[in-house]
Design goal:
alpha/beta, Tc1-like_DDE_dom, 17% strand, five-stranded mixed β-sheet, 216 residues, nuclease, globular, endonuclease, nucleic acid binding
Length: 216
């Protein structure tokens, strides 16, 4: 992971404590379970996306100049398993606590008998009482990122790769077409996945004892 040249000042008084908790999960995954990094990606709307592609010389691909939002937007809820590097995901019309809870149930079913450490941000659906009660009853421990700490979540880098390989230079005419492109990329990626190790090992964040407003 690359260092961050500029960071927004956090209002979280426990930023350092929470950050070191996240780093410890990267460095020393608990023996009694799995560490899963979760976040939402989107909104996935049907718009033309610029990008680069191989084309015959002087024959660029033409994209629509305009588009409409008649088909609404979708949202991707995804989970990155630290032990395997594989991604599990759902694409849904909304990203409420119900959808997030359904994702956690799917993760729970995939790894029965293991405690799940779910690393996520402070989005309200993640903290909903129903979600937290279900997590407590099913040996799932939410580990919340510090405020303005989304860059500590490795899945953010995976979203950047998804955008680059599956969405850039596209002009999908429907959500089914777009979802298929995403599924094809995730399938390709997961067959090549490896355990995630070595998060920001040379970064100055490793020596922080206080949260700076800027990293030069």
């Amino acid at each position: 992971m690359a260092d961050h040249d500029h960071l927004e000042a956090s209002t979280d008084p426990d930023f350092i404590t929470k950050m070191h908790r996240i780093l410890d999960l990267y460095d020393h995954p608990p023996a009694d379970g799995r560490v899963i990094y979760v976040d939402e990606f989107g909104p996935l709307n049907l718009m033309t996306r610029k990008g680069k592609a191989w084309r015959p010389l002087a024959k660029p691909r033409r994209l629509r100049a305009t588009y409409n939002r008649n088909d609404g937007v979708m949202h991707m809820l995804a989970a990155l398993d630290l032990a395997t590097g594989r991604i599990t995901y759902r694409i849904r019309p909304r990203k409420r606590h119900r959808e997030f809870g359904d994702l956690l149930k799917a993760l729970r079913a995939r790894w029965p008998g293991q405690k799940l450490y779910i690393v996520c941000d402070n989005l309200s659906p993640h903290r909903h009482p129903t979600v937290r009660a279900s997590a407590a009853a099913n040996d799932v421990e939410p580990v919340f990122l510090p405020t303005y700490g989304s860059w500590l979540n490795w899945i953010e880098a995976e979203f950047a790769a998804l955008r680059y390989f599956a969405l850039n230079d596209t002009d999908h005419r429907g959500h089914t077409e777009q979802n298929t492109a995403i599924a094809d990329y995730i399938r390709w990626r997961n067959t090549r996945a490896q355990p995630k190790t070595g998060f920001a090992t040379d970064s100055p964040i490793r020596t922080w004892t206080d949260y700076p407003t800027k990293v030069a």
